[in-house]
Amino acid sequence: MKKELAILLATYNGEKYIHELLDSILLTSYIDSLNLYVRDDGSTDRTVEILKQYELKYNDSIRMFCGENVGTAQGFNYLLKKSLDDGHVYFMFADQDDKWINKKIDQVLECFKAGNNDKPRLVHSDLYVASEDLKIIAESFWQYQHLNPQYVGINRLLIQNVVTGCTIGMNRKLAELVYPIPKEAIMHDWWAALTASALGTIEAIHEPLVYYRQHNSNTIGAQKYSLSIKKIKEPFIISKYTRQAEAFYARHFDQLDEKQRETFKAFISLSSVSRLHAVQHILTHSFYKNGAIRNIGFLAKMLFQNRL
Q1: What is the widest separation between alpha-carbon atoms in the chain?
Q2: Which residue of 79, 179, 207, 288 pairs with 8 in a disulfide if CB–CB is 3.0 to 4.6 A?
Q3: Residuewise pLDDT in 10s, the chain (308 residues)
Q4: Per-residue DSSP letters for 111-161?
């Protein structure tokens, strides 16, 4: 039977929590319709050994690949290409240290099947913020970080991503546009969100469907939204953001409308125009982050810090 769903998992030294993630995915009632694509990024612990045990047990549902260390985004890039070539219809990202709610897969797929998949679509959800032993720290990641999932216009997503990778579902139309994820992409989920915002739709499920585990080895993690002098003083490199925007603009120029092109051009210029002109572009095009505190800090850094 052809399996319609590909779940993409990039691993690296994840032996401590990988069992819980794999069990939460592979014990789903949807097991007969999914393939789990796993690429290990050169782990030095028992991650590969554990993955091979699951591969033997679920040999019809797991495809496993091992390679040299290329980083998370390019690991997902590799898996996206493999799963696209195999003809899957829907795609989801997974992180090695989380745990999925039992109904996650069903709920995301139900959302897709209730809509029009002739256009690119991204579906994502809220998360539980959880401790290392999966005790709930916050019932809503969005509230914990003061994020509004409605702020998914291009002008917003160019400067701040509100779509968390381990909650993302994509239909094939979107996955084909997302691939290949360029080296300029800050993260795979940010690139997917930009693509969906500019060329398709983003839909939010206002319910936590993942336990987002917090521990010392988190690549990014969830920090509670707050004002601190330390955060304001942190270096801010706008060129990291403009390089991602420039890569997107170059690839999808022909698919963007005139207003979108103007937005991208204004944003890309933030790293080269004068400080005052940069702030003018920010205000004119509403290149805003979530929350007044973040925006005050953003404007202050654009005015007074080295931006390059």
Answers
A1: 60
A2: 79
A3: 468 999 999 999 999 999 999 999 998 878 889 999 999 999 999 999 999 999 999 988 999 999 888 988 899 999 999 999 999 999 999 999 999 999 999 999 999 999 999 999 999 999 999 999 999 999 999 999 999 999 999 999 999 999 999 999 999 999 999 999 999 999 999 999 999 999 999 999 999 999 999 987 655 555 665 555 556 566 778 999 999 999 999 999 999 999 999 999 999 999 999 999 999 999 999 999 999 999 998 999 999 876 66
A4: HHHTS-TTS-EEEEEEEEEE-TT--EEES-HHHHTT--TT--SHHHHTT--
d(CA 229, CA 231): 5
> How far apart, in whole angstroms, are the C-alpha atoms of residue 186 and residue 190?
7
Q: Kind and range of the H or E element at 36?
A: strand 34-40
Q: State how beta strands 62-66 and 99-100 pair.
A: unpaired
Which helix or strand (DSSP H or E) is residue 202 part of?
strand 201-213
User: What are the tokens at 252?
Assistant: 């999808």
Q: List the structure tokens of 176.
A: 């084909």
Q: Which residues contact 94 (CB under 8 A, 6 or more apart)?
A: 7, 8, 9, 21, 25, 36, 100, 166
The label of the residue with tokens 């170059």 reads 250
Tokens of 160: 């701040």
Q: Is the separation of the CB atoms in 223 and 144 below 8 Å? A: no
First to last CA, the chain: 52
Nearest to 287 by CA among 192, 153, 129, 144: 153
How far is C-alpha 217 from the geometric centre of its chain's CA atoms?
18
Residue 210 β-bridge partners? 100
Please report, as a single letter, which amino acid is at residue 123: V
Residue 96, amino acid: Q
**What amino acid occupies position 200?**
G
